[in-house]
Specification:
The protein is α/β, with parallel strands linked by helices. The chain folds into 2 domains: about 180 residues, P-loop containing nucleotide triphosphate hydrolases (Rossmann fold), CATH 3.40.50.300; about 70 residues, no CATH class. It has 9 helices and 10 strands. It has a 6-stranded mixed sheet with strand order 6-7-8-3-9-10, with helices on both faces. A 4-stranded antiparallel sheet has the order 2-1-4-5, with helices on one face. A hairpin with a 2-residue loop joins strand 4 and strand 5. Helix 3 crosses helix 4. The two termini are about 20 Å apart. The structure holds adenosine-5'-triphosphate and magnesium ion (MG). The site of adenosine-5'-triphosphate (ATP) has 11 residues, from strand 2 and helix 1. Adenosine-5'-triphosphate (ATP) binds next to strand 2 and helix 1.
């Protein structure tokens, strides 16, 4: 479905995350205008749009870092619109923000232990096993200071930090930004793997063709509004039309 209206949740798969008419601003600057879309259970949704379209703002609103001025956000059966970020995180919504969100002067292991405690995990050893099981490359660097990891490894650590506890939804923002192509491949392999464990994904990504290859559905944001939404197979032409100058688009 590629018409210009936000669509209802698809088929009869229940929505894990649902935004309804969300408005958001930074001071006087309005960034989101009535954004509505949903992420069904066990589904990967790509969130695409040009620079400044409001993708990161959507990620911040759903994870509670930016408060919606109007509209609502429902997650896992709760109205989380006014919940603080820590409470949304503990309900199973993980947000890997733009950039390298690691503590440079702490070791890899210390970063993971802190993240696990913040998510309310009692048994940090289980959390570490889980993280190193998924990100085996990090295990070799567990006692290394995070600030001395390569860019790709730091991005992996950002992901591992939000996955130390089981998650229902992972929101990732430009995880592959600035990484070498081989590392980008690894990042996408990891996302595919996480998705195969049953965690839903909301993936913001400049590499439009690649993110579509791991997604079931796509939402296109244009200047703070949903311009198209639907199954990837249906929404592709709309993306080409709405983001024609996109450097990464290779339909
Ligand atoms: N902290 C902030 N203060 C003021 N304006 C902001 C702030 N963060 C974002 N904006 C503005 O809000 C709009 C949406 O920004 P947002 O970061 O959500 O876009 P984006 O789609 O993630 O862009 P990009 O692809 O460049 O990451 C932009 O016009 C941006 O300049
Ligand atoms: Mg952004």
């Amino acid at each position: 479905m590629t018409d210009e209206r936000p669509q209802a949740p698809h088929d009869d798969v229940p929505a894990l995350l649902e935004l309804r008419d969300v408005e958001a601003s930074y001071g006087p600057y309005r960034a989101l205008f009535g954004v509505s879309f949903s992420v069904p259970e066990r589904t990967a949704v790509a969130l695409v749009g040009s620079n400044g379209a409001g993708k990161s703002t959507v990620a911040r609103v759903v994870s509670g870092l930016v408060r919606a001025k109007a509209g609502s956000v429902r997650f896992a059966g709760h109205d989380v619109t006014r919940w603080p970020a820590w409470r949304i995180a503990r309900a199973g919504l993980a947000h890997a923000p733009e950039g390298r969100s690691v503590f440079a002067s702490l070791t890899v292991e210390e970063n993971l232990v802190l993240a696990a405690r913040a998510l309310g995990t009692r048994r940090t050893s289980d959390a570490l096993d889980r993280a190193f099981g998924t990100f085996s490359q990090l295990a070799a660097h567990r006692h290394q200071l995070a600030g001395t990891l390569s860019g790709g490894e730091q991005r992996m650590l950002s992901l591992a930090k939000v996955l130390v506890a089981p998650q229902r939804l992972l929101v990732v923002d430009e995880l592959s930004f600035g990484l070498a192509p081989a590392i980008v491949d690894e990042v996408f392999d990891m996302l595919r793997m996480i998705r195969n464990t049953g965690t839903s994904l909301l993936v913001i990504e400049q590499h439009v063709d690649r993110v579509l290859s791991i997604s079931d559905r796509a939402v296109v944001l244009v200047r703070g509004r949903v311009a198209a939404e639907g199954a990837v197979a249906d929404v592709g032409p709309a993306i080409e039309r709405l983001l024609p100058a996109h450097p990464q688009w290779s339909a």
